[in-house]
Amino acid sequence: MTGTQIMADPSNIAGFPGETEPSVSPDGRRPLSMDWITDDLLQATLAVWSPVYEQPLTTDDAVEILMNVKRFSEALLQTGKEET
């Protein structure tokens, strides 16, 4: 498997499985695993990150950013546990 093939498979990126849940359902309700993402947190994320991208981001973009930060934090925590 080449590096390109590994990156194309989301289950191989950082050792985490790919996204299996929709970011926000059509009726506006989030899956329970994303219940921590409040409307206020989404708005704050959009306010902080939109200027960085120099374009307005969507709610789905904000959810993706938050989920990536969460996964990164979990990876750091796991690495810290393995070192002790």
Account of the protein in words:
The chain is an all-alpha fold and 84 residues long. The chain has one domain (18-83). The chain has helices spanning 3-8, 39-53, 59-83. Helix 2 packs across helix 3 (59-83). It is flat and about 40 Å long.
Major sheet: size, sense and barrel closure? none
Q: Which spans of ≥5 residues are poorly predicted at pLDDT below 50?
A: 1-16
- Helical region count? 3
Can you tell me the number of structural domains? 1
Q: Count the beta strands.
A: 0
Helix content: 40-55%
Series of H and E elements:
HHH
Question: Average pLDDT, to the nearest integer?
Answer: 73
Percentage of residues in strands? under 5%
Instruction: Give the overall silhouette.
Output: flat
Terminal-residue CA separation? 33 Å
Given the helix and strand composition, which structural class is it? mainly alpha
Radius of gyration: 15 Å
Itemize the secondary structure elements and their pairings.
Elements: H1 3-8, H2 39-53, H3 59-83
Helix pairs in contact: 2-3
Salient structural properties:
single chain; mainly alpha; 84 residues
Task: Kindly summarize this structure in a few lines.
The protein has three helices and no strands. The chain is mainly α and 84 residues long. α2 (39-53) crosses α3 (59-83).
